[in-house]
Amino acid sequence: MTSKLMALARHPEFRQGARDMMGITLGISAWGLVTGVAMVKSGLSVPLALLMSFVVFAGSSQLASLPLIASGAPMWVLWATAFCVNLRFVIFSAQWRLYFGHLPRARRLRIAYFAADLNYVAFLKRFPDPKPSPDHEPYFWGGVALNWCAWQVPSVIGILLANHVPTHWGLGFAGVLALLGLSYSLLKDRNTWVSAAVAGCAAVAAYALPLRLNIMVAIAVAVAVGLLMEKWLPETKRSAA
Questions:
Q1: Which of 51, 63, 73, 109 is most enclosed, with most CB atoms within 10 A?
Q2: Which residue in 156, 160, 150, 124 sits closest to 139, CA to CA?
Q3: d(CA 44, CA 70)
Q4: First and final CA of the chain: distance in angstroms?
Q5: Distance between CA 199 and CA 78 in Å, rounded?
Q6: In terms of pTM, does the model score above 0.85?
Q7: Containing H/E element for 105?
């Protein structure tokens, strides 16, 4: 096992994957730190926050669920919110299946745990054509190794030092900025821009709903708009025109 890991780390595409993630690790680290602090500030104990950070490993759903935990929302609302926020990974996984579908299930499950938004963007930019290649796995692991560490280390620091961080530092707003940066990186065409704008409007319009249900409303509306635009205004047709 050790020799396999060493060979993987020495692969040129492993180093390339890490280099491609290097430029965005600062934002990921800031987001991880904010999320770590937010978990403890929301009432989670340090052991439970650490468990959530390592097991869940999904910053957007963690941040979305924390206000619900703090307000004592029913478990079904918590699960539904996390599910809706992470629906995008169904699309990511369907695309990654073209590259990793031939691997044994255990290896695919490991890939699924470490998969992240920005790794998906970097991977498809590096390999736009899903032809079989021995470079796919090394590149993927190089990117996620850096991404995972850039998230978990600041998150753990935030959890352990949360009680020493003054509330007036405005870390919640920093978390919003981190999420905005991530969202902006995923807006790649007209459909995603329109869906994001509609989601923002829906979230504001439904803000008065209890239990932060405006988040679920925004997600549902954005998905519906995105699917309708893909059906009626596909990018290929607009480009051809």
A1: 63
A2: 124
A3: 9
A4: 53
A5: 19
A6: no
A7: helix 105-114
